[in-house]
């Protein structure tokens, strides 16, 4: 599975992009907490297992801890609250001592820390599920199982029709929402409507795939040989959701110090 380098470079690079795109509302403190929890967070369990096996004592305890901590949900449920308190305290200390700058001039709140811990946990498994166990992880195997590998996948006319409708609605709906015919609508309102459009189309797409793969007997290829159901579910949970949590953790605009804003 990926080591510390890929995990931390992936999330710190993503955090830096958010820092620039949000003009500092997602600041250096956000980046550090997000990055630390992407690698060392869920891997605390693996580290505990390695440490106890190396020291030769407490091996049973280390082995029992690892599967509970190295999990995208249990990590947050078990360590989310204590780590939230730790990171919010550390953010105040780093800011007060001048060791880490904050564009907004305020430390991270407990809510922000908890959101970043959750985002980091999910981003950790974004890489782990793709690149561990020689490509035979449970998640990756399930993703591929939603495709059609038995034989050459037939292209069913109803599948072409449904997918064409969904994709047309997605593109045309986005163009309509962001058209020049609605100049009075704010960018935030357009973004919200566009997000809802994407979510509705994604749900419809997944529903079609579920019906074809799991409900129709015998099963039929949902979209040719493509494993679209698994890919969409995986991206929704481990790619889009972490970034949404990061966006929710951003500092409000009113706390942003205009004298220290980063250039766009």
From TrEMBL:
- Its domain of life? Eukaryota
Keyword set for this entry? Membrane, Transmembrane, Transmembrane helix
**Segments crossing the lipid bilayer:** 73-92, 159-177, 197-217, 229-248
Question: What is the official name of this protein in its record?
Answer: Uncharacterized protein
Recorded source organism is Dorcoceras hygrometricum
